[in-house]
From TrEMBL:
Allosterically activated by AMP. It is found in: Cytoplasm. The active site is at 402 (proton acceptor). This is ATP-dependent 6-phosphofructokinase. GO terms for cellular component: cytoplasm. The gene is PFK. The record marks 373 as: Important for substrate specificity. SUPFAM superfamilies: Phosphofructokinase. GO terms for molecular function: 6-phosphofructokinase activity; ATP binding; metal ion binding. GO terms for biological process: fructose 6-phosphate metabolic process. Pathway: Carbohydrate degradation; glycolysis; D-glyceraldehyde 3-phosphate and glycerone phosphate from D-glucose: step 3/4. It is an enzyme of class 2 (transferase). Its main location: cytoplasm. Mg(2+) binds at residue 372. It comes from Dorcoceras hygrometricum.
Amino acid sequence: MSVVDFHCSVGPEDLYTSVDQHFALPSIYAAVWSKIGGTGFVLLRPFDCYQSGVVDRRVGGARRICVFVYFRYSGGECSSVPFELLDLSFRAALLSFAVSPCGSRFEQVVGAVPWWNLYEVLQLALVVRQPVKPLRSDRVSQLVYIWYCINTGRRGMPRAFVVLVLDSFGLLKGLRNGSFATMGLECKSMPKIVTGAHGYVLEDVPHLSDYIPNLPVYPNPLEDNPAYSAVRQYFVHVDDSVPEKVVVHKDSPRGVHFRRAGPREKVYFESEDVNACIVTCGGLCPGLNTVIREIVCGLHHMYGVKRVIGINGGYRGFYSKNTVSLTPNSVNDIHKRGGTILGTSRGGHDTKKIVDSIQDRGINQVYIIGGDGTQKGAAVIFEEVKRRGLKVAVAGIPKTIDNDIPVIDKSFGFDSAVEEAQRAINAAHVEATSIENGIGFVKLMGRYSGFIVLYATLASRDVDCCLIPESPFYLEGPGGLFEYIEKRLKEQGHMVIVMAEGAGQELLSEDFQTATHDASGNKLLDDCGLWMCRRIKDYFSKKKKMAINLKYIDPTYMIRAIPSNASDNVYCTLLAQSAVHGAMAGFTGFTVGLVNGRQTYIPFYRINEVRNHVIITDRMWARLLSSTNQPSFLSPKQANVVAEMEHPDTQLLDDSFADGEKVIKDITF
Ligand SMILES: Nc1ncnc2c1ncn2[C@@H]1O[C@H](COP(=O)(O)OP(=O)(O)OP(=O)(O)O)[C@@H](O)[C@H]1O
Ligand SMILES: O=P(O)(O)OC[C@H]1O[C@](O)(CO)[C@@H](O)[C@@H]1O
Ligand SMILES: [Mg+2]
């Protein structure tokens, strides 16, 4: 990659960002933000330089390119530090980073400094011992170039790791008011980080009282609830928190925690004042109706709330559709149905119109059920609500059958989807075993993350080959997929292949590629399953002159349109009740989620920073490989890249190496 790559034509729809937070970030812990596919956008203030080891642990390994951007501000309006000192600290930061395990791993370092200052360019080159090319034009366009850089990776996977060294908050505020605004960026809140003894960190969620002073509090009506009186367990302790990592060594720091979900002694809403709404966005997922039902029933039965409305048709429904009144009676049976009784949609997120509608209708609790995109939308709604100073609690309930939401143990609907996928795999197995050289080929969902396919394969034990987006593969030649199919057919006379829809997209021949974007800006995938089946058939009939019988099964929409299974139903109930307790207690700007088996409130930025991926250097992938006996399909070059990946100093500090499936990193080839 060179500076030239910054000029590639990426449309405005690709300009996702989290960097608008930069001037409010308190430390590097809170400063690692991610974009589509998991780009680490790290904002390093001059005095954070000594923390580069933390950066390494959070984003190390996958990133190959490092971009330093140095804005030198000469207005002086907000900076009380002399420029000479800022220059010094900048160089210290750069040097410290460049020689750190993280910095030294990058293939190339690009330094962006004001183009007119050749002296700075030379200094940078000296420090990083690499050719440094200044980016031309003014500071605003430099920022735009960085966005481009983030989005230039293959298969939509970003390749850049960006470090901003800021020397003036004032300048960046100025930029935000200027070009940032035209990029549709919003100012976000400062993360609430509470620290305690022995490395305890609480990544807390916002509260209405953070921006509305002197809010009245009320006793929690649960105190009079016969069910809770019976067990004499009413409220969670105000200081209860849940650790993000439960595998520790005796000297490990206590690490990051999230606020434990549950009812609080005091609430910030009187029951008769609550006017709640529920909206579902994005694709379908088993359990949506259960969550709707349990929010309505939880509000009604636990808190005596009578006014709950449903917003029809996703985010756009706030301003373009009718609402529907929801009562325990009207939602009584809905959990037995798939889909969402409210309807859903992609696109149409107009923050101003949505919050106008919330304000006009007098809504004061907003429950937003949806995937990664929806949670990003919820975060923006929260910011706008806060900016207007409204007493409105915004709660997210994460949904996705793909299980690609980070931090949480798993998303609701995932188990049901995996279970339903068994029926398709069984059918494929029956078909394959009933005929000579039978191949059962099943395509399942999983746009960027292959969890459904991974778990469905492990659960079934009938699968001989599992293909996921995270694990590249190739078709022809030694070690390729075709060779493996031939071997398997010769060994046992049949085989079952299960593939995620996002796998092998890069293999599709150009004539087969028709993909564009959906209304939310998600890249639409081409039907790689169909294409693969055609390639397999062609290969064996034309090249090998070998008769095979391939049956293609595509149950993708069937596995997400079903009602949730029993375990997801219970999970949905707990999520919904946790959301209700949180909103009633005045918390806002949070997503509910299960962390290490406990319900928690997670700040939006943690849910939105990365995408959860299957890690193919993790033991779970080893379990998969030993279950199917398939080769890794990595080309020698790709295998080298994997082998080169260094493990962090302390494995326990990094999710991807902890025992289990919770991951935050991705591998980019
Ligand atoms: N960055 C964003 N900011 C504001 N709104 C967003 C953002 N990304 C997505 N949205 C909105 O969120 C809604 C749902 O997004 P999307 O279609 O990506 O589905 P999702 O919630 O990610 O669910 P799925 O699991 O099906 O992908 C859409 O209405 C979209 O406009
Ligand atoms: O066809 P739709 O409704 O846009 O949804 C398809 C996508 O939704 C998901 O189920 C969830 O993101 C993906 O697995 C899939 O690619
Ligand atoms: Mg999504």
